Amino acid sequence: MTKSPSQFLEQAAQPEMLIEQNERLNFILNKTPALIGYWDSQLINQFSNDAYSRWFGKSPEQIKGQHLNHLLGDDIYTGLLSEIEGALNGNEQRFERYLIDANTGEKIHTLTRYLPDIVNDRVIGFLVLGTDVTDVKNLEQLAYYDNLTGLPSRLLLMDRINQAMSRVKRQGGFVAVLFVDLDGFKFINDHYGHDVGDEFLIAISQQMKKAIRDTDTLARLGGDEFVIILEALSHSDDVDIIIPYILNACNSLISLRGLALKVSASIGVFLYPEDVDCYDIDAASILSRADQAMYVAKHQGKNCYHLFDRNQDQAIITRNNAIEAMQLGLSRDEFKLYYQPIVNMRTGQVLGFEALIRWNKNHTELLEPSKFLFVVENKPLGIELGNWVIKTALTQLAQWHQQGLELTLSVNVDARQLMQVNFVDCLQAELNKLPRFKPGSLVLEILESSVIDDFVKVTDIITRCNALGIEFALDDFGTGYSSIAHLKELPVKTLKIDLSFIKGITHSEQDYKLVNHLTHLVTDLRKQVIAEGVETIEHGKILLGFGCEVAQGYAIAKPMPADNVLAWVRDWQSDASWLNVPRSDRNYHLLFEQMSEPMLISKNGRYIDCNAAAVKFLGYPYKESLLSQRPNDISPVLQPDGQRSVDKVEIIKAALQHSGRQSFEWLLLRADGSEVLVESNLSVIKLDDGDIVQVIWRNLS
User: Sign of the C-alpha dihedral, residues 10, 16, 19, 21?
Assistant: First the structure.
């Protein structure tokens, strides 16, 4: 029978109850970083842990018996009144709020819950649970805003474009996306230095901001590239009135450090909707076409703008002609799959390949997907081509397995193909055709943006595919504006950091910090992180320092035909500088050093790491004294139940292999020879290179 918090407190207060158990409970509650407090129905405090009371500038003893209004003050109490009344009415309350540390003045962002305590249909109080989410909010700020100018970055820009498109669909009118590239900025950067260049970018962005309306958006992609969203345009030719003001702003004379600096701008424009068939285009394609139009403006002499014209597309003359050409190419076997390796840079292990489509147009010109795939977006041919990719990839995967190559193969799947009613059934039919399919060997990569559009449906599809032995990866991670909650709940094994961020880590402080944070975020979510676009050895060294070991990119290998794969796998070696980079210990420090309880990690029956609390608990002089020891090496010959320690270890290992978790009493030997009884909690953590066991001891002596 489950006890309510008040019943538990009442019971714990009875003298005949186990005092030792209560002390242990208080120890646990006071060591957790969460804010925990209990208020009765009269709003009198009955309990608070150390973390909760600290924000009042008091101890738990000083808070107990105090009225909530007295502690908070009238202003804060009034602001929380609706949540308090909701809890006292029996309804759980969830809200976010800033708290100020009464001792330090530090401002933190908390996610707080009020949980009603209901006994015999009567609310007798409520439990307060608060979580510090400041780091998450800071990461969102870093991800969504440019560190130099404070303007929206690519992530927030893509969301703003999507919102603007939605408003046009509902309300009509037009939205214009302007890709702005500064002409002559490289000269300023090269001749006067990056500090002057950065100050100039800030100043010129302020000038551009003055030339547009408050309802418009100015974003910085990086370097000297900016994007402007002009919303609520009544007529398509409104851009001809607005853009000259922007060109003049970019042509402003900027005075810095005694210098008179001036540039011009080349602007590419994409008008949405371009025509009646253009509503289904996505934000990424709009930005790409505005970028293409910008290059036309540069070629026209700079200091001008150019409106995107689909007739100038490099891959095809018209979309209809392109679709017909691609349909014909599919029947003529003109499409091929190339394969780019995915490797562990630190160990040199080849983990798998990503299948990338190529169009050998008329068997004379090899085109990359950026030249033709956008043509079939949201078209039936796009789904047909996607199905061909999966079938071809599975056939190739089966051949590799027959040849002894136990590799994974990743395939890109777009949102429309994934959302087909019969997608999972068709996939299962293809798997049934294979002589052998190794679960986990096929990985389907989906764009982060496709998850956001329909999280529930995508999660259901992924779960059904997981049951078939198919894994999923979230592609272009960092560009889709996903929430942390979605990432935590999404049943994908891998997140791939977009190459646009990797490219800048050697010279952009913002990209460096962002990729570092993203790597740690993915690792903390217990998912694998893969870096896309590793083009230099330096990229790899930096990523390894972050703890990102798995990568793909030109520094490893360019995509290759299937015929070249076997030889490449046989001959490839990781760069020597990558092999010498030590494994990142960042996660160990988070997991171990911040915990007051003794914690150890064992592998193959021996301890491979431990925190300072474990070393102190056993009285050893340093950590290395514990490493490589077996459990029975630091235990007496016999356990309290009479079993030999060495025999009991084997029994526990067998049970752990079956259940994944074990909890039991265990007698340990301290360094001074004394014995101490602990509750030992074991949990198996599955990793690619073998299982490890997390061990936590709680003192029972």
Answer: negative
